[in-house]
């Protein structure tokens, strides 16, 4: 009898070990390509820059690619450019930039041109929920800053909260304008509070990262457990009226007159990201300026956490449980 009891005990302990002791946590690994701010309607070589990204993306094992805005306006002459993007055979997603409606286009035309389900939407991939936001809504406040609209309405944010609550795993946010930078979304502090509240209610870091473009710089920072990651422009930094330089040829300048206001990057900048249970890994890419850079032009020194550089930095951002 004692021998039989020992046998039953062994069987029970073995079952417990197989069922629980050897079970590893579910492993999440999502790989995607990301680019932003190619500005087809400004850069003479935008097609070549996008082709470089798509070619490399095709050669990799990715779950999807995404561009984060200021891509191309819905002109008929931009159809060939869109065809380069659409030649990628896998899943591909769009974020609307502030320059997409330039030229008198409304948002419905932009959404149709990109083949988006709506201005803001979500999708699930590899155990993660990705939420794409539209930062181009109009702030009705009379005290709003001048310039392009960079706001998110209560309607959109109510939808976002529902998407957060419905997510069973971790969440990544994509927006054109930053939710951290002072030149980003006007009501960014309120939006960050919604994200942080969701993490508090979940009892863990449910929202792990917010990716943005728009600012044409290279940085990553953490605020209350959430990473805010700025992906550099594929093409250039906008220098403005006081720093005009013809950097290519007179002919190119005549055809593309806005390039002189920029500091172009010699080669296309984009990156490939892997998100696992442990970290967000961002692949670095570096090039150089075409012509004089910001220091040579005598531009003011930018903040340390918002550098004007021709690169996307290699980063490994560790995730908290």
CATH architecture: 4-Layer Sandwich
Helix content: 25-40%
The oligomerization state is single chain
Largest sheet: 6 strands, mixed
Note the total helix count: 7
- What is the count of distinct domains? 1
Strand content: 15-25%
Number of strands: 16
Mean pLDDT: 91
Would you kindly provide a brief summary of this structure?
This protein has 321 residues and is of the alpha/beta class. Helices cover 26% and strands 21% of the residues. It has a single domain, classed as Metallo-dependent phosphatases (Purple Acid Phosphatase, chain A, domain 2, 4-Layer Sandwich), CATH 3.60.21.10.
Description of the molecule:
- With 321 residues, the protein is an alpha/beta fold.
- It has one domain (26-318): Metallo-dependent phosphatases (Purple Acid Phosphatase, chain A, domain 2, 4-Layer Sandwich), CATH 3.60.21.10.
- Helices cover 26% and strands 21% of the residues.
- The chain contains seven helices and 16 strands.
- It has helices spanning 2-21, 46-58, 79-86, 107-114, 154-166, 188-202, 250-255, and strands at 30-35, 64-67, 92-94, 121-125, 128-132, 170-175, 207-212, 219-223, 226-230, 236-238, 262-264, 271-275, 279-282, 285-286, 311-312, 315-318.
- A six-stranded mixed β-sheet has the order 3-2-1-12-13-16, with no helix packed on it.
- Helix 2 links the parallel strand 1 and strand 2.
- The longest helix has 20 residues, at 2-21.
- The protein is globular, with a radius of gyration of 23 Å.
- Mean pLDDT is 91; it is low at 6-25.
């Amino acid at each position: 009898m004692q021998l039989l009891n020992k046998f039953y005990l062994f069987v029970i302990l073995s079952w417990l070990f197989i069922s629980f002791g050897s079970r590893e946590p579910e492993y999440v690994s999502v790989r995607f390509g990301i680019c932003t701010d190619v500005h087809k309607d400004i850069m003479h070589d935008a097609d070549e820059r996008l082709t470089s990204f798509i070619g490399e993306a095709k050669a990799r094992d990715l779950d999807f690619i995404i561009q984060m805005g200021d891509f191309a306006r819905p002109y008929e002459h931009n159809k060939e450019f869109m065809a380069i993007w659409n030649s990628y055979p896998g899943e591909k997603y769009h974020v609307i930039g502030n320059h997409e409606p330039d030229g008198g286009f409304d948002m419905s035309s932009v959404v149709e041109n990109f083949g988006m389900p709506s201005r803001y939407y979500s999708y699930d991939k590899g155990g993660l929920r990705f939420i794409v936001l539209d930062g181009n809504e109009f702030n009705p406040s009379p005290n709003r800053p001048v310039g392009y609209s960079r706001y998110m309405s209560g309607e959109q944010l109510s939808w976002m909260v529902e998407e957060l609550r419905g997510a069973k795993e971790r969440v990544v946010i994509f927006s054109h304008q930053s939710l951290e930078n002072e030149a980003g979304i006007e009501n960014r502090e309120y939006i960050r509070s919604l994200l942080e509240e969701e993490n508090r209610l979940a009892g863990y870091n449910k929202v792990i990262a917010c990716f943005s473009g728009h600012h044409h710089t290279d940085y990553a920072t953490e605020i209350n457990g959430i990473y805010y990651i700025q992906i550099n422009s594929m093409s250039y930094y906008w220098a403005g009226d006081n720093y005009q330089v013809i950097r290519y040829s007179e002919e190119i300048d005549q055809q593309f007159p806005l390039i002189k206001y920029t500091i172009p990057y010699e080669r296309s900048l984009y990156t490939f990201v892997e998100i696992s249970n442990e970290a967000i890994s961002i692949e670095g890419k570096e090039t150089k300026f075409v012509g004089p850079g910001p220091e040579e032009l005598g531009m003011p020194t930018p903040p340390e956490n918002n550098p004007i550089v021709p690169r996307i930095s290699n980063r490994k951002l560790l995730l908290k449980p």
